[in-house]
């Protein structure tokens, strides 16, 4: 009767190692597509959120159109007509609202209700979740900007001369404001405080950046130029009203704020509600 000897150290060492499994890229792409679809369905099935996201910019640009239609170039608007000035700036405000304000409030509410905690316990990677949010916000922003541009053309506003510059500015602005939205959501203690915190930051930035009326103060323009909203406004204005292309300085400032928002998000984002 033959006895089975235990494997020696040499035989164990010579056994081939199991190949390391590589992440399934197709699985990650499928999860990303599913997450984007989920965010889109959640948005479109919420009529109140949908209506305010799209109707408010349309109402504002329509009111400005009724006030400034037929007007020519004015020194007050830096040599542009009122509608030439307001069409890109209101488009920029709509992107800010969709990517910063709405995202920060939604994340604070999902954390408070435990949605983020449950998501974090699933196999869904964090990068897939946030990439899905980013793509969703870009889609909403593109629709918002298209609606505002469409209303502007009804008041004889010419279409942009450099669509590539508009596209790059729109995507970079959406990504930067999404990163800032996640960063602000990381600092909000509870969902009840989310709207107040978001508006406390957003309203002053919008007004000092010339979104609703031109700013002629050199000091204020210099300060606002270091913040994210005015560079986004200027980068959107250039292809619309100034026959210019990429505004690299403004895009660099916008990208820097996106990096700051991303760093805050990575260091401070919480999946669980903060205990009171």
UniProtKB/TrEMBL annotation:
Biased composition (Polar residues): 1-11
Annotated localization: Cell membrane; Membrane
Assigned keywords, A-Z: Antibiotic resistance, Cell membrane, Membrane, Transmembrane, Transmembrane helix, Transport
UniProt-listed InterPro entries: ABC-2_transporter (IPR052902), ABC2_TM (IPR013525), ABC2_TM_bact-type (IPR047817), ABC_2_transport (IPR000412)
Listed transmembrane segments: 51-73, 85-107, 127-151, 163-188, 200-226, 246-266
Membrane topology: Multi-pass membrane protein
Extent of Basic and acidic residues compositional bias: 12-25
Residue stretches making up the ABC transmembrane type-2 domain: 48-272
Region (Disordered): 1-25
PROSITE patterns registered for this protein in UniProt: ABC_TM2
Top-level taxon of origin: Bacteria
Protein family according to the UniProt entry: Belongs to the ABC-2 integral membrane protein family.
Name the record gives this protein: Transport permease protein
Organism: Streptomyces laculatispora
């Amino acid at each position: 009767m033959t006895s089975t000897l235990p494997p020696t150290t040499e035989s164990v060492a010579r056994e081939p190692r199991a190949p390391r499994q590589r992440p399934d890229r197709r699985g990650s792409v499928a999860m990303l597509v599913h997450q984007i679809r989920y965010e889109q369905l959640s948005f479109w099935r919420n009529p109140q959120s949908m209506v305010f996201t799209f109707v408010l910019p349309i109402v504002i640009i329509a009111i400005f159109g009724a006030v400034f239609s037929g007007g020519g170039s004015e020194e007050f608007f830096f040599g542009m007509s009122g509608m030439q000035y307001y069409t890109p700036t209101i488009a920029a405000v709509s992107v800010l609202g969709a990517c910063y304000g709405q995202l920060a409030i939604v994340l604070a509410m999902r954390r408070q209700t435990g949605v983020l905690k449950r998501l974090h316990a699933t196999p869904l990677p964090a990068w897939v979740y946030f990439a899905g949010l980013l793509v969703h916000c870009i889609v909403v922003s593109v629709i918002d900007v298209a609606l505002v541009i469409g209303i502007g053309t009804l008041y004889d506003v010419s279409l942009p001369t450099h669509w590539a510059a508009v596209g790059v500015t729109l995507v970079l602005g959406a990504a930067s404001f999404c990163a800032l939205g996640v960063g602000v959501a990381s600092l909000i203690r509870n969902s009840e405080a989310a709207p107040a915190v978001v508006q406390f930051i957003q309203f002053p930035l919008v007004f000092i950046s010339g979104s609703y009326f031109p700013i002629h103060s050199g000091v204020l323009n210099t300060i606002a130029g270091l913040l994210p909203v005015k560079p986004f406004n200027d980068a959107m204005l250039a292809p619309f009203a100034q026959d210019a292309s990429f505004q690299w300085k403004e895009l660099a400032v916008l990208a820097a704020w996106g990096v700051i928002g991303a760093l805050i998000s990575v260091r401070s984002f919480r999946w669980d509600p903060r205990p009171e």
